[in-house]
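Why should sequence recovery work at all? Because a backbone constrains its sequence more than one might expect. Tight turns favour small or flexible residues, buried strands favour hydrophobic ones, and helices have their own preferences. The token representation captures these environments compactly. In the example below, the structure is given first.
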């Protein structure tokens, strides 16, 4: 599994696919102990698996150990594990979301990484997960 997974917001300018949308340049980054022959897949998660409640007023959409539904995973890109990062653009998000896929795509609630080699794929490492807030955006 990629270690030290994170999502950084870059200051690079980006050009939105739709002039009515704003975009953000992001970079998924990781450490891989044995990168030879390993590719890292970067996925957007389009489902929020956990909702805040009155008892748990702030909750992240994706938590360590969650089983991610295949239908909620959209491949953003791949990179050799030795690269340590991959940059991409998203449409700027609303509260409780990381963003949207360009071109009218679905909302993104998390970015996860998976190391893949000839033996298969690792568990997902969470680079970032949006958080919901009970009653905050009503």
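From this structural description, the recovered sequence reads:
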């Amino acid at each position: 599994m990629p270690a030290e997974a994170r999502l950084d917001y870059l200051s690079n300018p980006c050009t939105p696919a739709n002039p009515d949308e704003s975009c953000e340049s992001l970079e998924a980054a990781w450490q891989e102990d044995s990168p030879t022959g390993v590719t890292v897949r970067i996925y957007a998660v389009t489902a929020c698996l956990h909702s805040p409640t009155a008892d748990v007023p702030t909750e992240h959409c994706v938590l360590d150990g969650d089983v991610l539904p295949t239908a909620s995973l959209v491949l953003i890109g791949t990179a050799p594990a030795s690269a340590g990062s991959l940059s991409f653009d998203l449409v700027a998000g609303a509260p409780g979301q990381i963003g949207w896929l360009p071109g009218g795509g679905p909302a993104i609630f998390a970015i996860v990484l998976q190391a893949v080699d000839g033996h298969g794929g690792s568990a997902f490492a969470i680079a970032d997960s949006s958080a919901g807030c009970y009653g905050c955006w009503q």
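A few observations help interpret the result. The mean pLDDT is 88.
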